[in-house]
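Could you join me in thinking about how sequence relates to backbone shape in a protein? To get us started, please write out a protein record for me. Would you write everything just below, so we can both look at the same thing?
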Amino acid sequence: MLILLPPSEGKTAHAQGSAFDLDNLSFAELTDERRLVIDALSNASAREDAMDILGVGASLANEVARNINLHTEPAAKAHDIYSGVLFEALNYASLDETAKQRADESIVVFSALWGAVRFDDRIPPYRLSMSVKLEPLGKMATWWKKRLTPVLDAAAKDQLIIDARSSTYAAAYKPSYGNSVAVNVYQLRNGTPKVVSHFAKHTRGEVARFLVQQKTAPKTASELLELIQTKWEAALVEDKKTMALNILLPEDHQFTTVR
């Protein structure tokens, strides 16, 4: 299986550590493209209107400034860099070694800077969203799409793709083959299923954690549904000509992060 995740907007900075090595990242076919984005991001972040270009507020000025010197920033493995609700729910650090290995092999995190990385890739913190337009590349989701598609299609091969990305990052890659399932999360509100962003992110993180803890990975949408239904109320539906796994949380749903 291949589990597709969005990044977190916020990143965890590390005080110590060597810089990243572009040649050692997964999906080496993207090295030249990554170099172009790094240069474009550095140039944009050094401009007076950098905050407007990147669509962030003044409180994130230090994060934007880091974009200028990514080659010297301390790097760490992606699972230590990405933070936020989804990654807290996944809680990589608390997995046993076998599950960690499955996570390293099966999880792909999409990134406006790197295109896509795996959990054991070493990267520095950065600030860039797929919705941003960088000169001279254009909107990042559009720019990455034609570059990511052949690389990730080749990586997926005949595996089941479990797509837990947000719409912003889903725009950067659509699997070319039919063996993929998008993960949607709803909560009952006054008897009606509603999208609740915070719960959706958390539940997608829980789903990713649950899947890498299984001894056998699902190979089809039906196998995925059968597995997910052991823990959640869920159904398979056709969504925009692709399959979607709809998870329904109860009205009184609360969540806690694994420690």
About this structure: Residues 140-156 form the longest helix (17 residues).
